[in-house]
Design a protein that fits this description.
Blueprint lengths: L3 E10 L40 H13 L3 E2 L2 E2 L1 E5 L9 E5 L3 E6 L2 E10 L3 E3 L4 E3 L6 E7 L6 H18 L9 E9 L5 E6 L2 H20 L7 E6 L4 E7 L3 H4 L2 E2 L6 E2 L2 H9 L5 H12 L3 H7 L3 H10 L5 H18 L4 H4 L3 H12 L5 H14 L3 H7 L8 H14 L1 H8 L3 H14 L6 H14 L2
Parallel strand pairs: 12-13
Antiparallel strand pairs: 1-10, 1-11, 2-6, 3-16, 4-5, 4-15, 6-7, 7-10, 8-9, 11-12, 13-14
Length: 456
């Protein structure tokens, strides 16, 4: 069996109003290219950086505390030198570790430090947009404690949940990127750069493990290099020879004052920390009697965990948990949305579940109403009425449909009378389909059987 060793370097854009060393706004996605720009973040000659953004440092400290890191009293900014079009100064400002020796479950955290994000370079077009240059960015470096792509996914899922609970990171696609270091059987380590999604991390690692196995199997030797993940083909390609620390020529940045961490301030941040996913999952399972595996899925997104907790006070908790992790999460995942970004109001979801519990809509009707809710954004009762999805108890209407189905399927009726139970299911299914799922299946079955007995 192959021995896989994986370590991750996760880059997270911090949630701040201004950039790390200047007052330019951070809404780089909402403006024209190179609009949020000043002499500092464009690295114009003679420009000097401001002191480190305090909100960015506080956000880093919260993350480091959540990852059980030892917080250092001080740090310095360094210049990490590399020449690339997205880096106007020729170096990236990056700090020495501020948090270190932490852990998330069984995965050890080597360090947490802060740096400035570079601009966006479009290689094929040859254009550079510096709006992103200077966005506060932290890097979380793990020890090589993961042994499979699935381990990496679980770690990233929990880390993402923690960031959501802390409300310290930008919540938009591409704001959290990962570099993966992977080796097999104690061999040479290969780095895969700038993977922009969790599913991408799993795909990149799976591909790279097989690629390295094939190199060794053919008698070759895995070389130390940096590779690029190709999302379209779920493969990796050679980017460049792997750099070492010496290649970057790190040196202290003389323009940025040393970073001083106040111990009393760190203690205050610690006292104000919210309940984090693991603790919340344990409490929800205990307080509401739901299965631990359901609780863990619910706490992956703080808005969903809070939705469950409020709804569970008004209905059977386990049923609520199954509905949220089932139909609701299914529709959110299909649209690649979080509950926060979906625009769905809590009162709508509570009303919809209440309608289902009261028997006003069927399973299918509830899901169809939920799907429409993403677009129509109004009361589920109104939507269900407009779409003719409300359950009917009108036995005359049901009876007319059953008459039509029984009269129209003489062979199925004969087969059922001859002992073929599936033939009855076919007739009942047709009746439910014509009723658009608006009648209780048990009632429909009883009425079909009654009609068959009458028809001799």
């Amino acid at each position: 069996m192959v021995n896989v060793i994986i370590g991750l370097e996760i880059h997270v854009q911090l949630k701040t109003k201004s950039k790390i060393f200047c007052s330019c706004p951070t809404n780089y996605r909402d403006v024209e290219p190179n609009e949020n720009l000043c002499p500092t973040c464009a690295a114009q000659p003679g420009s000097k950086p401001f002191g480190l953004n305090k909100t960015a440092l506080d956000n880093l400290l919260k993350i480091a505390l959540a990852l059980n890191c030892r917080i250092r009293d001080s740090s310095i900014m360094q210049r990490k030198h590399y020449l690339y079009p997205d880096n106007p100064s020729g170096y990236q400002r990056t700090s020495k570790p501020i948090g270190a020796e932490g852990n998330l479950g069984t995965i050890r955290i080597r360090e947490v430090h802060i740096e400035e994000d570079p601009g966006r370079y479009e290689l094929r077009e040859g254009t550079v947009d510096y709006n992103r240059a200077g966005i506060p960015l932290i890097e979380i470096v793990t020890e090589p404690d993961m042994r499979s792509p699935e381990d990496a996914r679980e770690f990233l899922d929990e880390l993402s949940a923690i960031l959501g609970y802390l409300d310290v990171a930008r919540d938009e696609p591409g704001s959290m990127r990962a570099d993966a270091n992977v080796s097999i059987d104690g061999g040479t380590r290969v780095e895969v750069k700038n993977i922009n999604s969790f599913s991408g991390v799993v795909a990149a690692l799976a591909y790279e493990i097989i690629r390295q196995q094939n190199v060794v199997r053919r008698g070759g030797k895995v070389i130390m290099e940096t590779r690029h993940f190709e999302e379209a083909s779920n493969s990796t390609t050679t980017l460049r020879k792997k750099e070492t620390e010496e290649d970057y020529r790190y040196l202290p940045d003389p323009d940025v004052p040393p970073i001083s961490v106040n111990r009393a301030h760190v203690a205050e941040l610690g006292r104000k920390m919210p309940e984090l996913p693991r603790a919340k999952a344990a409490r929800l399972s205990k307080d509401f009697g739901i299965r631990p595996e359901d609780a863990w899925i619910l706490v992956a997104e703080v808005e969903i965990a809070n939705l469950f907790e409020r709804m569970a006070k008004r209905a059977i908790p386990q049923k609520i948990a199954l509905w949220i992790r089932g139909p609701l999460k299914k529709q959110l995942n299909y649209r690649e949305l979080t509950l926060k970004r979906s625009g769905l109001k809590e009162e709508w979801l509570s009303e919809l579940f209440g309608m289902f519990e009261a028997g006003e809509v069927s399973d299918k009707g509830m899901e169809q109403t939920l799907i429409a809710l993403f677009e129509k954004k109004k009361s589920p009762k109104t939507i269900a009425t407009e779409m003719d999805l409300l359950m009917t108890k009108d036995t005359k209407e049901i009876g007319r449909i059953i008459d039509t189905v029984v009269e129209g399927n003489p062979k199925s009726i004969a087969d059922y009378k001859a002992g073929n139970e599936k033939a009855l299911n076919f007739v009942v299914g047709n009746a439910i389909k014509l009723l658009k799922g608006r009648a209780d299946s048990k009632l429909v079955r009883e009425l079909v059987l009654k009609k068959i007995k009458e028809k001799k």
